[in-house]
Every structure is written in structure tokens, then in C-alpha cells.
What does this fold into?
Amino acid sequence: MGELKRQTSASLAWSIIDKFGFQTVAFLVGVVTMRLISPDDFGIIAALAIFTLLSNILVESGFTVAMVRRTSNTNDEYTAAFYFNIAISVLFYVVLMLAAPLIEGYYDKINFPDHLAQFLFLAILINSFGIIPNIILVKSLKFKYISIANLSSAIISGVVVVVLAIKGYTCWALAWQQVLQVVVRTAIMWFFSRWKPSLKPCFSVIKELFSFSAILIATSIISTGVKSLYTFLIGKKYNETDLGYYGQANKFHQIPGNIVSGSLSGVAYPILSILNLEKERQLIYFRKIMRITAFLIFPMMFGLIGVAENFILVCTNVVWLPAVPYLQILSISAMFMPFQNLCLQILNVMGQPKWNFRLEMIRNSLIIISLIVCVLSINIEFEPQFSIHFFLFKNNFTISVLLVGFSIATFLAYITSIFVIGKFIKYSILEHFKDILPYVVISIFMYLIICGLTFLNLNMYLEFILQVVTGIIFYFTATWLLGSRILKDTIELLKSRN
It folds into this structure.
């Protein structure tokens, strides 16, 4: 128990440093580049980046989850998975390179620079070399080295993109950032893992890994594809500027969730796997992770909704103001995503990938239904013969309607996930609400106070700082006075790592 607690404390601390540090660097670099690069250029990269994301899922093939879950892996098995990942990455790079003209033709309202797509897709090839070193580090709970790799790659690529942006390279600067980040991260992973492929790869393990990961791959592809429908639709029916607004709002709203979900989930999966034969301890640990998630995510997202307009004006400039409603609406959906991710994670730990798949299909179905309903309600033009002009609506309003539907679908999917896992780990919806409700209530009061400060009519910069500081002080003071166990547990957990 003591060793597990020590490993959990150290892993949690480094995982938080990794996610918080990486997202902080990403945020700072994003703010600087948004001042130097137009929404049009961000829209161009957003239109192509989704193909890289989908390909990386297929290249990884679900092996990370499958191999971390296994009791042990031999070097020959690692080698077989390594060669398989590379072979698949080469295949997809060739396919995408040949399909680049078709992709650019689909986005007929976006002007792509020559050879940009082919260059950006190089990240797929490079990423395949870092999958096995990453698995080895995760399996051994060496999150310190993963943190160093992620932070170093973010900083180095961030410096490069800023320099290139200053020199006027616009969307090419953003493409270099993505490719260079993968290069640096992969190189550092190899250095710290000290791993070398064997001469006798055991390819028989591929079939075993696929028996577990096949459903996970299908789930990830379908889920990512469904989420990408918004990018495809906005990029096709509007232009790169609108896609740029949506893309950056989508990126910034994910930062708090990525910090919380990434930090806790990365540590929770191996620990929950260790506790798989001790169901009572596993449930206690799972509920604690749920409470910590609620303690962190709700104030972050309610706070972001409250300061969204000042955040955009202070950190970027007035050009990006149309992104504010997108950021606020997407922040609502971001409150529920970490909880659903934890639900899917516990199902993987318990060897229930089929239920993982079913829950993802329910979420995807809800998103598709919401998208269809919203599209019909705002009369978006799909084909010339069904054209209905919607002169009463502006672009930012019609896109906002789509995102409201997405948030509603996300909430319904989250409720469904909590209900389903309750059958496996004896964790009811009422118990879940009991775990998270205190933090929801305190966060809402914090949000109301933040919004109330706008009536003071202060200088924009002063108002923004006052909103952030007041929100933080109120939230932590309220949780402390109300005797929050999680606040005390988190402090003790971080102190105990020493």
C-alpha cells in the first residue's frame, strides 16, 4: 500500500507538471501566434490537421492501451509492434500524399499553399517511431521523462513557430511547429527509454493486441471522425476565416480539460489496472479521481466562460472577437468530457472494450442527431437544389447553434456513461452527483461574481486581472471553509511525493 501510494504521488505530480506545463506553453505560443498570424492561416492548418489526427490513431492501432494493460511485454513483442506501426504510417502517408489534391478540392473556398499538405503529413511518419518508447515509459510509470519530452518539444517548436511567424511565414510556420514538435518529442523519448529493437520480432503478438484494441481503434476513429464533422462542414460551407475562429476556440476550450483529464487519466489507468483484483479499493480510488476532477474542471470552465471576452481581447486582439461565443459554448461541453473519459477508462481496465465502444457510439449518435437537427433548424445549404437562403442569420450565429447542439449531446452522453459504469463498479448516478455537486455549486457562485465585476466599468486589462484573481480566491476560500476533503487530499498527495 505504501509503495503504491508513493508511486501514485510521484506519477501524479509529474503528470500534472507535464500536462499543465505543456498546455501552458501551448497557450502562450498560441496567444503570440494569434497576434502574428491571421485567422485565415489557422483555418488552413485546421482543415488539414484532422487528417493527421485520424491517421495517427490508425498508426498507433490501440497498442498503447493494450500493451500497458498486459502484465508484461517482451522486447521481441515491442519490436514487432514497432515495425508494424512504421509500416502502417508509411501506408497512410502515401495514401494522404496522393489524396492531397482531392482534400484541397473538397475545401473549394480555402486557398492552400502548394505542397503544404504533403509536408504537414510528415508528422504521421515521424510519430510512429515514438509509440513504443512512450509505451515503455508509461508501463514503468516514468512520467518524469515523458514530461521532459513533451515540455521540451513544446518549447522548441514554440520558439521556432514564433520566429517564423515574425518573418512572415504564416501557415507554413504553423506547419513547421507541428512537424518539429513530433520530431523533438520522439527523439527525447528514445533517449530516455534506452530501448533498442531486437533482431527477432514476435509478430504473433500483433494478433493478440488487435483482439483487444480493434474495438478501441474503431471507437477512436469513429469518435474523431464525428467530431471532425464540424471542421468539414465549417471549412466547406464557410471559409478559412470562420474555420480559424472555430479552430482556435476549439483549441483553447480544450486546454483546461486536457490538463485535468490528461494529468489524472494518465496516472489513473495504470493504478486502476493494478487494483483490478481489489474491487473495493479500486472503487475508492476511482471515486477520489472523480472528485479531484470535479474540484479542478468546474471552476476552470465556469471561469473561462465568465472571462471569455476579456480573455480574447487582452491575450490576442479584436480580430479574434468573433471566436468568443464559440469558446463559451464549447466550454460547457468541456465540463463533462473528463468524466466520460474516466468512465471509458475504467471499462478498459475491467476488460470491457465492447461497452467502451457502445458508449462512444451512443455519444457519436447523439452528436450526429444534434448536428442534423441544428443544420435543419438554421437551413444550411447542402446542395444547390435544396438551397434555402438564411439572410436572418450571420455566420457566427449559425455556427454557435451547431455548437449548442454539440454541448447538449455531450451532456446526455456523459449521463449515459455514469449510468452504465454503475453496473460494473457499483457506482450510482446519485453517488456521482454527491461527489461532484459541491464543486458545481461553488463554481456557479464564482461565475456570478466574475460576471458581476463587469458592471464596475473598469479598464479592460484591470477588469480581466480582477476577475481571475477574485475567482481564484473565492473558489479556494469557499472549498476550504466548507471542509473539502479533496483540497486537503490533493495538498497532502503532492507533499507526500517527497
The CA atoms of residues 24 and 255 lie 8 Å apart.
